Fold this sequence. Notes:
The chain has helices at residues 40-53, 72-88, 100-110, 115-150, and strands at residues 2-8, 12-18, 25-32, 55-62, 91-96. By secondary structure, the protein is an alpha/beta fold. The chain has one domain (2-150): 2-Layer Sandwich (Nucleotidyltransferase, domain 5), CATH 3.30.420. The chain is globular, with a radius of gyration of 16 Å.
Amino acid sequence: MRIMGLDYGSMTVGVAVSDELLLTAQGIEVIRRKQETKLRQTYARIEELIVEYKVELIVLGYPKNMDNTIGSRAEKSEEFAAAIRRRTGLEVILWDERLTTVAAHRVLDAANLGYKKKAEVVDKLAAVFILESYLDFRNNQVKLNSKDTEG
């Protein structure tokens, strides 16, 4: 089983995929579109990647406001998640992504990448951070559950 992580933005979708052991996340690509509302090719590419990597679950970044409220970007993510569910039949988990893009920028700044190169990969790295956060949570839940059954 593999899990896909998505960082949905107004003009791009960063994509990451877990390894089969669900331990690590690897950035795959950034899907770009010319207009925010033109999503047909974006959905088609995500569907291709689901088949290619044998994805069984999707984790979509959920950009809540810092005060934990739902703004327009989060509402668009909810709509995107619903469309992915309808098209693929897969479960889509909305995962709090606050500060993942900021963290991605910090990592890329530390790597001294130029603006153009940074712009090419920041969404992919944000998808990696979203997926890694979910994998860490999931693996910690498994550990906690196994301790409960040991006693």
